[in-house]
Amino acid sequence: MSTNDPQQQSMIREAMKAIAERRPGRTKLVYDKTKRTIVAVAQGAQIPKALDITAEDADMFAVVSLSTAWLRENISRLSGGKLSISLSSWDKGDAFTQRGLGALSSDYIAEGSVSLGKTSAFSGDQSVSVAIDQVADVRGVERFTFLAPNGERYLVKAWQKRANEEEVLEVHLVDVLPAIEERRKGLLESSALADSTVLCIGLGTGGAYIAIELAKCGVGNFILVDPDRLSAGNVIRHPGGLSQVGRKKVNVVQDLLIEKNPDVKVSIHPIATTVESAEEMTPLFRAADIVVCGTDNRPSKLIVNKLSVDAKIVALYGGAFRRAYGGQVLRVRPRHSPCYQCFVSAMPEEANDVEIASDEAAAGISYSDRPVPVEPGLSLDVLPIANMLAKLALLELIRAKPSSLNVLQRDFEAPWYFWLNRPEAGTKYSSWPALSESIDEMTIHRWYGVDLPRDENCSMCGDFISAVAAEHGIDLQSLANVQIPSKPLPF
Ligand SMILES: [Zn+2]
User: Taking the model in full, what pTM does it have?
Assistant: First the structure.
C-alpha cells in the first residue's frame, strides 16, 4: 500500500479514518487486482477488477472490549461528568479489556474514562477515552451501540493515547451472558443447569478440567474442595498456568470458572478430605446435586463414598492407571448401583492400579521402605477420563430435565467404565490387537461399560447390620430398642 503520491496518501488516510469510525467517507479503499495493490478511490466509484476493503478486512486498529452491562448500569451517572474505568492492556496496547469482564487481568492496567459526547476527553495519565452519544439512526453502526435502561440507544467510540498521539480504537461491546447462552442453545436449554450444584473434591488436572467443562455447560454453582497449592510441576498438565503458581488450587479454579461464566457461584474449601474433616464436609454433600471425586488416594475416596451414600447423592470417581496407560470411571447411585466400597471388594486389582502423579500419592501407597516413583502420565491421556466424568456428571444433572441429550441415558447405564490409552507392557492388556486391525475384539481408545454387582451386604451401602446379625444368629427384632451407633468409617 506504500505510495509516494501525496493525493493517494491523503485519500488513503481519509478512507482509513472512515473505516475506523465506521462511517461512509469521501474515499474508500479497494484492492485493485490489475495493479495488485490497495488504492484509495472516491466513494461510490465503480472500478472493474477491484475489491472493496471493509473494516473487518482492515483490522488495523487496536481493540477495546467494553462491558455492555457496565455501560447500561452506569449511564445514568454520566450526566455529571466522566467515570473512570480500568482496563487490562494486552500485547503492547493492541487490545484493551475492561476489568471485571472476567476474573483475571493483565500485568499492566490502563486507566481510562467514559464520558458523554462525540469526541475524546483525555485527562491526566489516562490512556483510553470512551465517548458515548445518543444516536437515532443506527444503520451501519448498530453493533457499536447499546440500549440504555431509559430506552435510548447510544453509540460508543473510543481512542487511545500513544506517544501523545490519539489513535482510534475499534470498539467491541461485550454482552457476556446473552452471548454465552446463545452459544449453549441447541443441545441444552440455556438455563437448565443454572440451579445445579456440583461438589468437586480434588482439583488436580482431572478435577479442574471437569469443573471448567461443567461451567461451560451452564452449571451455576460449584463447591470446590482441595487443600493444595498449584506448583510449577503441576502446570504442565493443570489448566492453571505459571502465573498462578503458589496460589491454592481452589482459588485458581474459582477464577477459571468465573472466566467462563461471570454468573457462576463458587464456594471454596481449602481442606483435605480426612476422617477429621468429614464432619465439616457433611453439609457440603447435603448442598450438592452431585459429587465429582478426583482425589488420588483411597482413604479420601472412601470418605467421599461414606458422605455421599449418607447424603444420598450420586458420586463419580475417576482415576488414571499408572503413567496414565488407561483409566476408569465409577458412578455410584447410592443403594441402586455399587458404591466405591463395593467396587474395591469386587475389583481389588483395578482399584489398586492408580496413577502416581504426586509425592503425596506416592507416599500414600508406599507401605514399605521401598520408595514409589512419581510417574505421572500425559495430560493428553488423563483428559479422556476427565471428559467421561464430565459427560456422566452432565447426564446425571439433566436426568429429570427436558433435554435432547437424555437420549444418551441408555448408552451410559453401566456403573463402571474402562478406557485404555495404550497396550502397556507388563499388563494383561499388552497383547490386545491393534486398533486398526480389530473389529470385534477389545482395543485401546474405546470406552467399555461394565455392569458390576452391588454387594447387598456392603458395610457402606448395603444392609451390613442384617448381614452380620444373620451370620451370628442375632435376632434384630430383640435389639429394636438398642441404639445402634452410626457406622464408623472403615479404617
Ligand atoms: Zn457398597
Answer: 0.80
